[in-house]
């Protein structure tokens, strides 16, 4: 049994095809097929059901693949530990990031980290918190940028910044007469929200009390979106209000329709998280420092006394 053979069976499992796996591994299909057959003969089991398309692992193949991933990942960790000790920031890094941060945070630091570490290949995946944490647990991701806390003792977190919330109001909205807003001013019946599964949706609902909406302000439709940009455009068209994190509010054109909260300001804690398998300490430090160094004014890695941290209701994952 060789590490190469394990990499080949993982490629077949991931692509569902011997030909695609061969291209991914940069070998000919006969070479890949022969090595997998040798492994099956050595183990005395059939790993793949070749009668199905796409090709699927057998039941015992699933168990072998699960262990193979750990072995291959372990070998990669050995190389990463050595690189880290040498101060060499290179290789692949897979990072998850929640949708309410991705389009606003990544442009602030991505080019800087790429320019500083050209041999480092970064892959970002936009995911909701629950999916991301599961991928970190099963080693499909190295790191995640999420709202914390996460109730999992195996997930380590490093606070990047505290991000205050703003209220974005439609033209002519009665609340525009106020310079700052309180939670009691907002109604859960009136706010435009993200879809289920977004932690920011739950945080928004926790701030918007069931204040009665005047009949003149009642909406004639209900709408939930997976994008803060869609919610902003609906508000621009005259649909009530939505809540925006600080970064998402930075590019709002008509800033006269943004209202801050009065003290204590509702704030979310944004952190870089990883599982116990992640050992690249030098790389972790470089990434954290680069992100913090490129944050705009208004964001800080320490929470001020006038900020109220709104915990992530979806962060308590078992």
From TrEMBL:
Q: Could you tell me the keywords of this UniProt record?
A: Activator, DNA-binding, Transcription, Transcription regulation
Which one of the record's GO molecular function terms can you name?
A: DNA-binding transcription factor activity
- Its domain of life reads Bacteria
Q: Which Gene3D superfamilies does this one have?
A: Periplasmic binding protein-like II, Winged helix-like DNA-binding domain superfamily/Winged helix DNA-binding domain
HTH lysR-type domain residues: 1-58
Q: Which GO terms describe its cellular component?
A: protein-DNA complex
> Would I find Transcription regulation among this entry's keywords?
yes
For this protein, the record's CDD domains field holds:
PBP2_OxyR
Pfam families from the entry?
HTH_1, LysR_substrate
The UniProt family comment states:
Belongs to the LysR transcriptional regulatory family.
Q: Quote the protein name from its UniProt record.
A: Transcriptional regulator, LysR family
| Species this chain originates from | Bdellovibrio bacteriovorus (strain ATCC 15356 / DSM 50701 / NCIMB 9529 / HD100)
């Amino acid at each position: 049994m060789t590490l190469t053979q394990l990499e080949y069976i993982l490629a077949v499992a991931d692509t569902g095809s011997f030909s695609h796996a061969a291209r991914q591994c940069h070998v000919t299909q006969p070479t890949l097929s022969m090595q997998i057959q040798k492994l099956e003969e050595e183990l005395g089991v059939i790993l793949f059901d070749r009668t199905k398309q796409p090709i699927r692992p057998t039941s015992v193949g699933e168990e072998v693949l699960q262990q193979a991933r750990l072995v291959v990942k372990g070998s990669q960790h050995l190389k990463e530990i050595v690189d880290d000790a040498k101060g060499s920031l290179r290789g692949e890094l897979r990072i998850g990031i929640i949708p309410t941060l991705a389009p606003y945070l990544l442009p602030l630091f991505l080019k800087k980290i790429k320019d500083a570490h050209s041999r480092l290949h970064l892959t970002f995946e936009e995911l909701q918190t629950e999916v991301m944490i599961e991928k970190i647990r099963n080693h499909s991701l190295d790191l995640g940028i999420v709202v914390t806390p996460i109730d999992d003792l195996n997930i380590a977190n490093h606070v990047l910044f505290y991000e205050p919330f703003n209220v974005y109001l439609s033209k002519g909205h009665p609340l525009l007469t106020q310079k700052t807003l309180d939670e009691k001013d907002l109604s859960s019946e009136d706010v435009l929200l993200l879809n289920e599964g977004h932690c920011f949706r739950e945080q928004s609902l926790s701030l918007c009390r069931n204040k009665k909406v005047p009949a003149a302000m009642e909406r004639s439709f209900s709408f939930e979106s997976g994008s803060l940009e869609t919610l902003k455009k609906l508000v621009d068209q005259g649909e009530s209000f939505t809540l925006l994190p600080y970064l998402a509010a930075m590019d709002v054109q008509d800033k006269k329709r943004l209202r801050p909260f009065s003290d204590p300001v509702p704030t979310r804690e944004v952190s870089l998280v990883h599982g116990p398998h992640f050992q690249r300490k030098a790389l972790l430090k470089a990434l954290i420092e680069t992100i913090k160094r490129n944050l705009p004014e208004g964001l800080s890695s320490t929470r001020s006394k006038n900020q109220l941290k709104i915990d992530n209701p979806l962060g308590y994952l078992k």
